[in-house]
């Protein structure tokens, strides 16, 4: 754990600057977090519906001064939306007849994205009591897509179609609030946050992704 904390401090130094000898190991906390995402799209012409996803990952929290800290998250997270009762076509090339063929699918169409997300957040805590610290946090994020699929569901049967229509890199901002609760030697926390993409998701589209996320975790 000591070696891990030293590695984290070195990374934070690159972000906030300063002299390494002014940093205290007790100001650094590492932890895990996970939760449920309520995902949808903004400015989509089809007015899609909300879809549920999940997130899981790690956090590194460094106390800057007083009640202010800097938190870096590393999350595997789901994004997307669903268009109900929709028809889509998949175009494939048939090498035997040297022609293109279109297959049509009817049903609920889910546009699903899986990202590796890196939020860098400022966190301000208010120690209401020694064991309960409510807080707010916010900042930018950068996300790297590692999977994208279109899922068509009809009458209990689902078909997954690989897709590459979305951009590989996304960025945006996060704002949220939560509560740190002293538990053992560390802190248990619950948190709600809003994620808003600032980059158009599709290469030729006009919509953005958004998510309301409810998370919980533990900081050591």
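^ Assign residues to that structure.
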């Amino acid at each position: 754990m000591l070696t891990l904390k030293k590695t984290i401090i070195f990374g934070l130094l690159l972000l906030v600057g300063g002299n390494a000898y002014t940093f205290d190991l007790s100001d650094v906390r590492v932890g895990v977090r996970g939760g449920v995402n309520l995902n949808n799209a903004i400015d989509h012409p089809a007015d899609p519906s909300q879809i549920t996803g999940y997130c899981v990952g790690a956090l590194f929290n460094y106390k800057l001064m007083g009640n202010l800290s800097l938190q870096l998250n590393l999350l595997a997270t789901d994004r997307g939306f669903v268009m109900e009762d929709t028809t889509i076509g998949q175009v494939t090339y048939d090498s035997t007849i040297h022609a293109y063929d279109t297959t049509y699918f009817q049903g609920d169409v889910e546009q699903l994205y899986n990202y590796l997300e890196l939020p860098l957040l400022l966190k301000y805590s208010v120690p209401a009591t020694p064991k309960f610290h409510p807080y707010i946090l916010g900042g930018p994020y950068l996300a790297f897509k590692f999977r994208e699929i279109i899922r068509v569901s009809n009458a209990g049967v689902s078909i997954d179609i690989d897709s590459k229509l979305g951009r590989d890199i996304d960025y945006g901002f996060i704002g949220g609030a939560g509560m740190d609760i002293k538990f053992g030697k560390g802190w248990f926390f619950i948190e709600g946050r809003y994620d808003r993409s600032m980059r158009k998701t599709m290469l030729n589209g006009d919509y953005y992704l958004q998510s309301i996320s409810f998370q919980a975790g533990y900081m050591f």
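The helical segments are 2-16.
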